[in-house]
Design a protein that fits this description.
The chain is α+β, with helices and mostly antiparallel strands and about 350 residues long. It has twelve helices and eleven strands. The protein folds into two domains: about 90 residues; about 240 residues, Bira Bifunctional Protein, Domain 2 (BirA Bifunctional Protein, domain 2). The longest helix is centred in the N-terminal third of the chain and has 40 residues. It starts with a helix and ends in a 16-residue tail after the last helix. Bound molecules: 3,4-dihydroxyphenylalanine.
Protein backbone atom coordinates (compact mmCIF):
# COMPACT_ATOMS: atom_id res chain seq x y z
CA UNK A 1 0.00 0.00 0.00
CA UNK A 2 1.34 3.42 -0.93
CA UNK A 3 2.01 6.01 1.69
CA UNK A 4 -0.99 8.06 0.57
CA UNK A 5 -3.28 5.01 0.67
CA UNK A 6 -2.12 4.22 4.17
CA UNK A 7 -2.72 7.78 5.30
CA UNK A 8 -6.20 7.68 3.75
CA UNK A 9 -7.31 4.49 5.49
CA UNK A 10 -5.82 5.68 8.79
CA UNK A 11 -7.57 9.06 8.68
CA UNK A 12 -10.90 7.62 7.53
CA UNK A 13 -10.80 5.02 10.30
CA UNK A 14 -10.07 7.73 12.90
CA UNK A 15 -12.91 9.89 11.61
CA UNK A 16 -15.38 7.00 11.58
CA UNK A 17 -14.61 6.19 15.18
CA UNK A 18 -14.64 9.81 16.44
CA UNK A 19 -17.16 9.97 19.29
CA UNK A 20 -17.96 13.68 19.40
CA UNK A 21 -18.36 16.69 17.13
CA UNK A 22 -15.31 18.21 18.82
CA UNK A 23 -13.23 15.15 17.98
CA UNK A 24 -14.36 15.30 14.34
CA UNK A 25 -13.43 18.96 14.21
CA UNK A 26 -9.98 18.24 15.65
CA UNK A 27 -9.41 15.59 12.98
CA UNK A 28 -10.59 17.96 10.27
CA UNK A 29 -8.13 20.62 11.37
CA UNK A 30 -5.35 18.02 11.55
CA UNK A 31 -6.04 16.87 8.00
CA UNK A 32 -7.56 19.73 6.04
CA UNK A 33 -6.66 22.78 8.13
CA UNK A 34 -3.93 25.22 7.16
CA UNK A 35 -1.25 23.07 8.79
CA UNK A 36 -3.06 19.78 8.05
CA UNK A 37 -1.34 16.69 6.63
CA UNK A 38 -3.62 16.53 3.57
CA UNK A 39 -3.15 20.25 2.95
CA UNK A 40 0.62 19.74 3.09
CA UNK A 41 0.39 16.98 0.47
CA UNK A 42 -1.82 19.16 -1.74
CA UNK A 43 0.80 21.90 -1.52
CA UNK A 44 3.51 19.58 -2.90
CA UNK A 45 1.56 19.33 -6.18
CA UNK A 46 2.59 22.89 -7.10
CA UNK A 47 6.29 22.00 -7.10
CA UNK A 48 5.94 18.89 -9.31
CA UNK A 49 6.68 18.52 -12.97
CA UNK A 50 3.58 17.91 -15.15
CA UNK A 51 4.38 14.21 -15.54
CA UNK A 52 4.94 13.67 -11.85
CA UNK A 53 1.73 15.57 -11.07
CA UNK A 54 -0.18 13.36 -13.50
CA UNK A 55 0.97 10.33 -11.56
CA UNK A 56 0.81 11.55 -7.96
CA UNK A 57 -2.04 14.08 -8.24
CA UNK A 58 -5.04 11.73 -8.46
CA UNK A 59 -4.26 9.70 -5.29
CA UNK A 60 -3.76 12.92 -3.32
CA UNK A 61 -7.03 14.42 -4.64
CA UNK A 62 -8.81 11.18 -3.85
CA UNK A 63 -7.36 11.30 -0.32
CA UNK A 64 -8.78 14.81 0.12
CA UNK A 65 -12.19 13.74 -1.13
CA UNK A 66 -12.29 10.62 1.03
CA UNK A 67 -11.38 12.61 4.14
CA UNK A 68 -13.91 15.37 3.35
CA UNK A 69 -16.68 12.83 2.76
CA UNK A 70 -15.86 10.87 5.90
CA UNK A 71 -15.98 14.06 7.98
CA UNK A 72 -19.36 15.11 6.55
CA UNK A 73 -20.85 11.66 7.10
CA UNK A 74 -19.59 11.36 10.67
CA UNK A 75 -20.69 14.88 11.52
CA UNK A 76 -24.21 14.26 10.24
CA UNK A 77 -24.44 11.00 12.18
CA UNK A 78 -23.29 12.64 15.43
CA UNK A 79 -25.68 15.57 14.95
CA UNK A 80 -28.63 13.27 14.39
CA UNK A 81 -27.72 11.31 17.50
CA UNK A 82 -27.46 14.52 19.54
CA UNK A 83 -30.89 15.69 18.30
CA UNK A 84 -32.46 12.33 19.06
CA UNK A 85 -31.04 12.41 22.57
CA UNK A 86 -32.36 15.93 23.12
CA UNK A 87 -35.81 15.09 21.80
CA UNK A 88 -35.94 12.04 24.05
CA UNK A 89 -34.89 14.04 27.12
CA UNK A 90 -37.29 16.93 26.43
CA UNK A 91 -40.31 14.81 25.69
CA UNK A 92 -43.52 15.97 27.37
CA UNK A 93 -46.19 13.47 28.16
CA UNK A 94 -49.37 15.15 26.94
CA UNK A 95 -51.48 12.43 28.50
CA UNK A 96 -50.53 13.36 32.08
CA UNK A 97 -53.57 14.65 33.98
CA UNK A 98 -53.59 18.47 34.05
CA UNK A 99 -54.75 18.55 37.66
CA UNK A 100 -51.26 17.62 38.77
CA UNK A 101 -49.87 20.83 37.32
CA UNK A 102 -50.50 24.12 39.14
CA UNK A 103 -53.53 25.79 37.59
CA UNK A 104 -53.60 29.49 36.85
CA UNK A 105 -56.73 31.56 36.38
CA UNK A 106 -57.79 34.49 34.23
CA UNK A 107 -57.82 37.78 36.14
CA UNK A 108 -61.28 39.39 36.34
CA UNK A 109 -59.94 42.46 34.51
CA UNK A 110 -58.77 40.32 31.58
CA UNK A 111 -62.08 38.49 31.63
CA UNK A 112 -64.07 41.74 31.56
CA UNK A 113 -61.86 43.13 28.76
CA UNK A 114 -62.66 40.00 26.73
CA UNK A 115 -66.35 40.39 27.50
CA UNK A 116 -66.27 44.04 26.40
CA UNK A 117 -64.47 43.20 23.15
CA UNK A 118 -67.03 40.48 22.45
CA UNK A 119 -70.02 42.75 23.08
CA UNK A 120 -68.67 45.66 21.05
CA UNK A 121 -67.48 43.44 18.21
CA UNK A 122 -71.07 42.26 17.92
CA UNK A 123 -72.12 45.92 17.55
CA UNK A 124 -69.62 46.36 14.71
CA UNK A 125 -66.79 47.99 16.70
CA UNK A 126 -63.13 47.17 16.17
CA UNK A 127 -60.64 46.96 19.04
CA UNK A 128 -57.80 49.52 18.93
CA UNK A 129 -54.79 49.98 21.18
CA UNK A 130 -52.28 52.77 21.76
CA UNK A 131 -49.03 53.30 23.67
CA UNK A 132 -49.06 53.63 27.46
CA UNK A 133 -46.12 56.05 27.25
CA UNK A 134 -47.67 59.03 25.50
CA UNK A 135 -46.68 62.52 24.49
CA UNK A 136 -48.33 65.65 25.68
CA UNK A 137 -50.00 66.37 22.36
CA UNK A 138 -51.92 63.08 22.08
CA UNK A 139 -52.81 62.89 25.78
CA UNK A 140 -53.88 66.51 26.18
CA UNK A 141 -53.48 69.13 23.45
CA UNK A 142 -55.16 67.27 20.59
CA UNK A 143 -58.01 66.42 22.97
CA UNK A 144 -58.70 70.14 23.34
CA UNK A 145 -56.95 70.37 26.71
CA UNK A 146 -54.61 73.36 26.20
CA UNK A 147 -51.50 73.80 28.30
CA UNK A 148 -53.16 76.21 30.72
CA UNK A 149 -56.24 74.05 31.20
CA UNK A 150 -56.96 73.00 34.81
CA UNK A 151 -57.85 69.51 33.57
CA UNK A 152 -54.13 68.84 33.20
CA UNK A 153 -53.62 69.27 36.91
CA UNK A 154 -56.78 67.25 37.60
CA UNK A 155 -55.26 64.25 35.91
CA UNK A 156 -52.38 63.85 38.41
CA UNK A 157 -50.08 62.93 35.59
CA UNK A 158 -46.91 60.87 35.95
CA UNK A 159 -44.27 62.64 33.84
CA UNK A 160 -40.90 61.25 32.79
CA UNK A 161 -37.96 63.36 33.98
CA UNK A 162 -36.32 63.94 30.54
CA UNK A 163 -37.45 66.98 28.61
CA UNK A 164 -37.36 67.60 24.86
CA UNK A 165 -36.14 70.80 23.15
CA UNK A 166 -39.46 72.51 23.89
CA UNK A 167 -39.28 71.54 27.55
CA UNK A 168 -41.94 68.82 27.23
CA UNK A 169 -41.78 65.41 28.87
CA UNK A 170 -43.28 62.13 27.86
CA UNK A 171 -45.89 60.85 30.29
CA UNK A 172 -47.86 57.78 31.28
CA UNK A 173 -51.22 58.21 29.60
CA UNK A 174 -53.85 59.38 32.05
CA UNK A 175 -56.75 58.01 30.02
CA UNK A 176 -57.46 55.92 26.92
CA UNK A 177 -58.75 59.00 25.05
CA UNK A 178 -55.43 59.58 23.15
CA UNK A 179 -56.25 56.39 21.22
CA UNK A 180 -59.14 58.37 19.69
CA UNK A 181 -56.61 60.81 18.24
CA UNK A 182 -54.21 58.14 16.98
CA UNK A 183 -57.01 56.27 15.27
CA UNK A 184 -58.59 59.35 13.66
CA UNK A 185 -55.17 60.32 12.28
CA UNK A 186 -54.62 56.79 10.96
CA UNK A 187 -58.01 55.90 9.49
CA UNK A 188 -60.61 57.71 7.46
CA UNK A 189 -64.14 57.73 8.88
CA UNK A 190 -66.47 55.96 9.34
CA UNK A 191 -64.77 54.88 12.57
CA UNK A 192 -66.29 52.64 15.21
CA UNK A 193 -63.85 51.45 17.84
CA UNK A 194 -63.27 50.57 21.44
CA UNK A 195 -59.84 50.92 23.02
CA UNK A 196 -59.34 49.05 26.29
CA UNK A 197 -56.11 49.43 28.24
CA UNK A 198 -54.07 50.53 31.23
CA UNK A 199 -53.98 54.15 32.36
CA UNK A 200 -52.01 55.84 35.13
CA UNK A 201 -52.64 58.58 37.68
CA UNK A 202 -50.84 59.53 40.84
CA UNK A 203 -53.67 58.56 43.16
CA UNK A 204 -54.16 55.76 45.68
CA UNK A 205 -56.93 54.79 48.13
CA UNK A 206 -59.67 52.13 48.39
CA UNK A 207 -61.23 53.21 45.09
CA UNK A 208 -58.13 54.55 43.27
CA UNK A 209 -54.91 52.82 42.24
CA UNK A 210 -52.01 54.48 40.37
CA UNK A 211 -52.66 52.10 37.46
CA UNK A 212 -56.15 51.18 36.42
CA UNK A 213 -58.06 50.21 33.30
CA UNK A 214 -60.37 52.09 31.00
CA UNK A 215 -62.21 51.36 27.83
CA UNK A 216 -62.66 54.16 25.34
CA UNK A 217 -65.37 54.19 22.70
CA UNK A 218 -65.36 56.30 19.56
CA UNK A 219 -67.77 56.54 16.66
CA UNK A 220 -67.17 59.02 13.83
CA UNK A 221 -69.51 59.15 10.87
CA UNK A 222 -71.98 61.44 9.15
CA UNK A 223 -75.17 62.48 10.99
CA UNK A 224 -74.23 60.94 14.33
CA UNK A 225 -76.29 62.25 17.24
CA UNK A 226 -76.85 61.74 20.97
CA UNK A 227 -79.49 59.09 20.35
CA UNK A 228 -76.82 56.84 18.88
CA UNK A 229 -74.69 57.32 21.98
CA UNK A 230 -77.51 56.57 24.39
CA UNK A 231 -78.60 53.46 22.48
CA UNK A 232 -75.04 52.17 22.29
CA UNK A 233 -74.39 52.60 26.02
CA UNK A 234 -77.70 51.07 27.00
CA UNK A 235 -77.35 48.11 24.64
CA UNK A 236 -73.83 47.51 25.88
CA UNK A 237 -74.78 47.65 29.58
CA UNK A 238 -77.71 45.27 29.11
CA UNK A 239 -75.44 42.77 27.39
CA UNK A 240 -72.64 43.21 29.92
CA UNK A 241 -74.78 42.84 33.05
CA UNK A 242 -76.97 40.28 31.29
CA UNK A 243 -80.18 41.98 32.37
CA UNK A 244 -82.80 43.73 30.29
CA UNK A 245 -83.84 46.05 33.10
CA UNK A 246 -80.61 48.05 33.15
CA UNK A 247 -81.54 51.62 32.20
CA UNK A 248 -79.24 54.58 31.87
CA UNK A 249 -79.34 58.20 32.85
CA UNK A 250 -77.26 60.91 31.20
CA UNK A 251 -76.24 63.85 33.38
CA UNK A 252 -74.79 67.07 31.96
CA UNK A 253 -71.09 67.33 32.74
CA UNK A 254 -67.88 68.73 31.31
CA UNK A 255 -65.02 67.17 29.40
CA UNK A 256 -62.81 69.33 27.18
CA UNK A 257 -62.95 66.80 24.34
CA UNK A 258 -66.73 66.53 24.11
CA UNK A 259 -69.53 69.06 23.63
CA UNK A 260 -72.05 68.50 25.01
CA UNK A 261 -70.58 66.23 27.69
CA UNK A 262 -72.45 63.78 29.85
CA UNK A 263 -71.71 61.42 32.65
CA UNK A 264 -73.80 58.30 32.52
CA UNK A 265 -75.27 56.25 35.33
CA UNK A 266 -76.84 52.80 35.23
CA UNK A 267 -79.76 51.72 37.38
CA UNK A 268 -79.37 49.26 40.24
CA UNK A 269 -81.60 47.51 42.71
CA UNK A 270 -80.98 46.60 46.34
CA UNK A 271 -81.06 42.88 47.06
CA UNK A 272 -80.43 41.99 50.73
CA UNK A 273 -78.61 45.29 51.16
CA UNK A 274 -76.36 44.59 48.14
CA UNK A 275 -76.40 46.66 44.99
CA UNK A 276 -77.23 44.62 41.91
CA UNK A 277 -77.18 46.23 38.48
CA UNK A 278 -80.60 46.63 36.86
CA UNK A 279 -83.88 47.59 38.47
CA UNK A 280 -85.08 50.93 39.79
CA UNK A 281 -83.66 51.52 43.27
CA UNK A 282 -80.89 53.92 42.39
CA UNK A 283 -78.23 55.14 39.99
CA UNK A 284 -74.61 54.08 39.81
CA UNK A 285 -72.11 56.36 38.10
CA UNK A 286 -70.25 54.49 35.36
CA UNK A 287 -68.36 56.80 33.00
CA UNK A 288 -68.08 59.89 30.85
CA UNK A 289 -69.30 60.51 27.35
CA UNK A 290 -70.39 63.12 24.85
CA UNK A 291 -70.36 64.33 21.29
CA UNK A 292 -66.77 64.64 20.06
CA UNK A 293 -65.74 68.31 20.22
CA UNK A 294 -65.33 69.94 16.76
CA UNK A 295 -61.81 71.05 17.81
CA UNK A 296 -60.81 67.43 18.36
CA UNK A 297 -62.15 66.43 14.96
CA UNK A 298 -60.30 69.37 13.41
CA UNK A 299 -57.07 68.50 15.25
CA UNK A 300 -57.17 65.15 13.50
CA UNK A 301 -57.41 66.74 10.06
CA UNK A 302 -61.13 66.14 9.56
CA UNK A 303 -63.85 68.66 8.76
CA UNK A 304 -66.32 68.85 11.68
CA UNK A 305 -69.00 70.11 9.28
CA UNK A 306 -68.85 66.75 7.54
CA UNK A 307 -67.96 64.34 10.37
CA UNK A 308 -69.48 64.08 13.83
CA UNK A 309 -69.28 61.46 16.46
CA UNK A 310 -69.64 60.40 20.03
CA UNK A 311 -67.14 59.08 22.53
CA UNK A 312 -67.24 57.49 25.94
CA UNK A 313 -64.82 56.31 28.59
CA UNK A 314 -65.57 53.75 31.29
CA UNK A 315 -63.52 52.33 34.15
CA UNK A 316 -63.05 48.64 33.45
CA UNK A 317 -62.09 47.75 37.03
CA UNK A 318 -65.29 49.33 38.28
CA UNK A 319 -67.31 47.32 35.77
CA UNK A 320 -65.63 44.15 37.04
CA UNK A 321 -66.31 45.09 40.67
CA UNK A 322 -69.99 45.76 39.98
CA UNK A 323 -70.50 42.60 37.98
CA UNK A 324 -68.53 40.14 40.10
CA UNK A 325 -69.07 41.66 43.55
CA UNK A 326 -65.62 42.76 44.69
CA UNK A 327 -65.39 45.84 46.85
CA UNK A 328 -61.71 46.75 47.20
CA UNK A 329 -60.02 47.90 44.01
CA UNK A 330 -56.54 47.50 45.48
CA UNK A 331 -56.97 43.72 45.73
CA UNK A 332 -57.09 43.66 41.92
CA UNK A 333 -53.39 44.43 41.77
CA UNK A 334 -52.02 42.70 44.87
CA UNK A 335 -51.34 39.44 43.04
CA UNK A 336 -52.67 37.48 46.04
CA UNK A 337 -53.14 33.91 44.79
CA UNK A 338 -56.04 33.26 47.18
CA UNK A 339 -57.93 36.23 45.75
CA UNK A 340 -57.15 35.16 42.20
CA UNK A 341 -58.31 31.63 42.95
CA UNK A 342 -61.57 32.95 44.32
CA UNK A 343 -62.35 35.59 41.70
CA UNK A 344 -60.38 34.28 38.71
CA UNK A 345 -61.86 32.55 35.69
CA UNK A 346 -60.99 29.29 34.04
CA UNK A 347 -58.84 29.70 30.93
CA UNK A 348 -61.45 27.72 29.04
CA UNK A 349 -64.28 30.04 30.08
CA UNK A 350 -64.09 32.23 26.98
CA UNK A 351 -66.86 34.81 26.87
CA UNK A 352 -69.18 34.59 23.89
CA UNK A 353 -72.49 36.28 23.33
CA UNK A 354 -74.23 33.00 22.62
CA UNK A 355 -72.68 31.21 25.60
CA UNK A 356 -73.09 34.14 28.01
CA UNK A 357 -70.50 36.86 28.45
CA UNK A 358 -70.10 36.42 32.15
CA UNK A 359 -71.45 33.42 33.97
N1 LIG B 1 -61.06 60.48 29.44
C1 LIG B 1 -62.03 60.67 30.50
C2 LIG B 1 -61.37 60.39 31.84
O1 LIG B 1 -60.45 59.64 31.89
C3 LIG B 1 -63.21 59.78 30.30
C4 LIG B 1 -64.02 60.17 29.14
C5 LIG B 1 -65.04 61.08 29.27
C6 LIG B 1 -63.76 59.63 27.89
C7 LIG B 1 -65.82 61.46 28.19
C8 LIG B 1 -64.52 60.01 26.79
C9 LIG B 1 -65.55 60.92 26.95
O2 LIG B 1 -64.29 59.52 25.55
O3 LIG B 1 -66.29 61.26 25.89
O4 LIG B 1 -61.80 60.90 32.83
Amino acid sequence: MSEVEALKSGLVADIESADSLDAVEALRVGALGKQGVVTALLKTLGGMSPDERLEKGPPIQSLREAVTDAIATRKAALETAALDARLASERVDMTLPAAEAPQGSIHPVSQVMDELAEIFADLGFTVATGPEIEDDWHNFTALNIPETHPARAMHDTFYFPDKDAEGRSMLLRTHTSPVQIREMLKHKPPIRLVAPGRVYRSDSDATHTPMFHQIEGLVIDRDIHLGHLKWTLETFLKAFFERDDVTIRLRPSFFPFTEPSMEFDASYSLVNGQRVMGGTDGWMELGGSGMVHPNVIRNCGLDPAEWQGFAFGIGVDRLAMLKYGMNDLRAFFDGDLRWLKHYGFSALDVPTLSGGVGA
